[in-house]
Amino acid sequence: MVKNCSHEIKVIPVLWERPCNGVYKLNTDRSALNNPDKTGGGGILRDHQGKLVYAFVVPLGIGTNYHA
Fold first, then answer.
1. In angstroms, rounded to a whole number, what is the distance separating the alpha carbons of residues 20 and 4?
2. pLDDT for 29-63, tens place per residue?
3. Domain encompassing residue 36
4. 53 Cβ contact partners less than 8 Å away, ≥ 6 residues apart
5. CA angle, corner 22, sides to 20 and 26, nearest 5?
């Protein structure tokens, strides 16, 4: 067991940058509930004004956060 372990919370601001006019931007991510357990992924497609065009999620089966 680890003694005297501190958990520091670090906040990292994230900013979505718009693509050029007439261009779409696809952002994706994936995750795992535990390690190993259910994994999944998803994405969102936005136009140059930031308007939602399409969004999706997909189950990826059982795996680790490395495989997700």
1. 49
2. 998 888 888 999 999 999 999 999 999 999 999 98
3. 25-63
4. 24, 45, 46, 47
5. 70
- In this prediction, residue 6 carries a pLDDT of 72
C-alpha Rg value of the chain to the nearest Å: 17
Is residue 15 included in any domain, yes or no? Answer: no
Verdict on whether the full-model pTM lies above 0.85: no
61 has which bridge partners?
Answer: 39
- Residue 1's pLDDT is 57
Give residues with Cβ within 8 angstroms of 52, minimum separation 6. 44, 45, 46
**Rounded Cα gap, residues 26 and 37, in angstroms:** 26
Number of domains composing the chain: 1
- Give the pLDDT of residue 43: 97
